[in-house]
Design goal:
Chain lengths: 228, 50
């Protein structure tokens, strides 16, 4: 056929489809490995050496965590252990967690594990959102640890009558229905003191994860994007 | 037009995701350009067959 168009030629479309499918497959396999490397948890050694990992090691619960605006990235980033000259994590300043700032990697890991299992057993995600997964019936918990309401001058800490953020959060988790927090009050889920400790550790660790500024407009923090 | 690279860990996918143009240029490079190349190859083949 002398004047057959390429557009109606089967081989042209076959070759195009083969190329696009093959290339996309390679790209997705590469993306899988790239992602696993980026989301793998750091270690205690990384924290001591000042290596910034997207997901820091469990012993990050020994450090002070802040959420500060990063001018270059255009959103807040978790700053662990005080900030250095560039406004990034300095990994220096410690903060006591339930009276200790020397949790070992094993202890902290076990605590986080308990908290993670607890969060699954109590189905936090049924109402809350954790790292983008879950519901918005109740507040987003991804950066809950950094909410100033749980801080020294915060209303939630004052409400529980405790002197530290972690104790206040643990107290609330054990008796949520006693405290008026939200229009939709949290039900009592029978969380034990140990589980509450694990859950608070889990939340503190989660707040140290670099989520590229998610959730957007975590505006309760002064100086945040659209902060109040 | 091009936004500065700001990701935590430099990676190819971080670069790809920086702004709308990086992705567009990338997809045009890997899909449209080879299609043009395949088009002319097939055109030549059809002409030779004809």
């Amino acid at each position: 056929m002398a004047n057959k168009s390429v557009w109606s030629d089967n081989r042209f479309w076959q070759r195009t489809a083969t190329w696009v499918t093959g290339f996309a497959a390679v790209l997705l396999i590469w993306l899988t490995f790239d992602t696993s490397a980026q989301i793998s948890m750091g270690t205690d050694e990384d924290l001591k050496q000042g290596v910034t990992k997207r997901v820091p090691g469990p012993t990050v619960i020994n450090y002070k965590i802040e959420y500060l605006m990063d001018a270059k990235r255009g959103h807040e980033i978790p700053v662990i252990g005080g900030k250095n000259a560039e406004g990034r994590s300095a990994f220096q300043e410690k903060e006591k967690f339930f009276g200790r700032d020397d949790w070992t990697e094993e202890e902290a890991g076990a605590l986080l594990h308990l908290g993670k299992l607890g969060s699954q057993a109590k189905n936090c995600m049924n109402c809350h959102t954790l790292l983008g997964n879950g519901a918005y019936y109740a507040p987003d918990l991804t950066k809950a640890w950094l909410d100033p309401a749980w801080g020294p001058e915060g209303s939630l800490q004052a409400m529980t009558g405790k002197n530290t953020k972690e104790e206040a959060m643990a107290e609330f988790l054990q008796h949520p229905s006693q405290y008026p927090t939200h229009e939709r009050m949290m039900p009592d889920l029978g969380i034990t003191a140990d589980e509450a400790k694990g859950l608070v550790a889990f939340l503190k660790h989660m707040s140290s994860i670099d989520t590229n500024g998610f959730p957007r407009n975590f505006g309760k923090i002064q100086g945040a994007v659209h902060g109040k | 037009m091009f936004e500065p690279f700001t990701d935590v860990i430099p990676s190819f996918f971080g670069w790809l995701n920086q702004g709308p143009l990086t992705l567009t240029i990338f997809l045009h490079t890997v899909i449209i350009l080879p299609m043009i190349w395949i088009y002319y190859q097939e055109k030549k083949r059809l002409e030779n067959e004809g």
